[in-house]
Amino acid sequence: MQPGKGLLMIQFDKAHKRFPNGTTAVHDLTLDLPEGGVTVLVGSSGCGKTTTLRMINRMVEPTSGSIRVGGKDVLEQDAAELRRSIGYVIQQAGLFPHRTVLDNIATVPLLLGWGRRKARARAVELLETVGLAADAGKRYPHQLSGGQQQRVGVARALAADPPVLLMDEPFGAVDPVVRTQLQDELLRLQRELNKTIVFVTHDIDEAVRLGDRIAVFRTGGHLVQCASPAELLARPADAFVADFLGAERGLKLLSLTTLEEVAQGPAPEGARWQLTLDAGRRPLAWRDSESKGEAEIPVRPLRDSDSLLSALNESIAAPSGLVARVDADGVLTGVTSREDIHARAGQVHSAASTVAA
Ligand SMILES: Nc1ncnc2c1ncn2[C@@H]1O[C@H](COP(=O)(O)OP(=O)(O)OP(=O)(O)O)[C@@H](O)[C@H]1O
C-alpha cells in the first residue's frame, strides 16, 4: 500500500517494547496515524513517549507487534534508509558542533547522494523557510541562540522533504516567548507542507496548540486516549486523563475557539467607562468618566481570530466588562459584553460534549 490521501501513514499494531532490564516502555500499542496532521504524544515522565517515537524510525525495535510506515513494516526496511526518509528533531537540536549551519542542514541530502551544490542550494532555501537570515548559514551551532538552533534542527529534518517528521520535545529547552514563536512557525510550516508529524511533549498547552490529535499515555506505556484536542478536553476518557489535562481544561477548550461568531455592538453611550480612540478610531484605553483625575486603564483590543479564552480574560480585566473588537488594521468594529462571551463559552462546551458523545 502506498501512502496517499486518506490512507494511514503510521500504524502501530500491538507494538510492545520491553527492554533487556525488564522495563516495559510501551505496552501493546495499537494506534493508526493518518497521512498529514500532527499527532502529539503526551504523558508523565517515563510513560514511553520517546520509545514509541523511536520505534517509528527503528531506533528502537519492538519486542513484539509491528509498526508500519507508508504501509511497510519498519523491520522489513533497511534501518539507515528508513531513518534518512524520516525527519527527526530532538531537544537542543542535536546539531553537529563542528559543522556550519548550512552543512548541518545539508546532512541528509548529501547522504542521499544529491551532490554538494544541490544539497547546499536546498540548505540555503530551508534557512529562509524556517525564518533564519542567510548569514546564519556560515556560522557554527554554538554561535546561535537556543531558539535559532532549534530552527536549524527543523530545517535539517526537512532537508530531504520527508513525508514523516518525528519531533521529540523539540522546544523543551527554550524560554516561553521563543517557544511560542517556534510553535507559531511550526504551525505556519505545517499549513504549507502538511507532513505527518509525531510530536512528543510534556506540556499539555503545547499539545492543545499544535495537535490535530493528542495521544495520552500513562506509566507502563499504556495508551489511554487518542482524540482531537476538543474531544479530549470535553470528554476525557477517565480520571487519569482529566487529571493530566488539569483543572483548567474547560478554559483550554476555549483556547480552541475564536471570537468570530460572538456578536458585537456599538460602545454604550453614557456608561461610566468610556473607550478612548485615536484619530484613526483605534482603541487607546478605558477612561473613567467619574474620576476627576481622568483615570485610564489600558485596553487590549481583540480581532475575530483571537480565542474565546483571550476574550474571557480581557472581559475580566476590562473595568467595563467589555471587549473592544477591531479589524485587521486595528480599527474599532464594536464591543462585546462579558455576558455574551460567557454564553458563547457555554455553547462551545455543550457542542464539544455532544459531538464527542
Ligand atoms: N534503553 C533503555 N533500557 C532500559 N530502559 C529504558 C531504556 N530506554 C527507556 N527505558 C525506560 O522505559 C520507560 C519509558 O521511557 P521513555 O523514554 O520512552 O519515556 P518518556 O515518556 O519519553 O519519558 P520522558 O518524558 O521522561 O522523556 C522508562 O521507564 C525508561 O526508564
TrEMBL record:
Molecular function (Gene Ontology), one example: ATP binding
Record InterPro entries: AAA+_ATPase, ABC_transporter-like_ATP-bd, ABC_transporter-like_CS, P-loop_NTPase
Pfam families: ABC_tran
Domain ABC transporter: start-end pairs: 10-245
Tagged with keyword Nucleotide-binding: yes
Keywords: ATP-binding, Nucleotide-binding, Transport
Family to which this protein belongs: Belongs to the ABC transporter superfamily.
PANTHER family for the chain: OSMOPROTECTANT IMPORT ATP-BINDING PROTEIN OSMV
Protein name per Swiss-Prot or TrEMBL: ABC transporter, ATP-binding protein (Cluster 13, osmolytes)
Lineage: Bacteria, Bacillati, Actinomycetota, Actinomycetes, Kitasatosporales
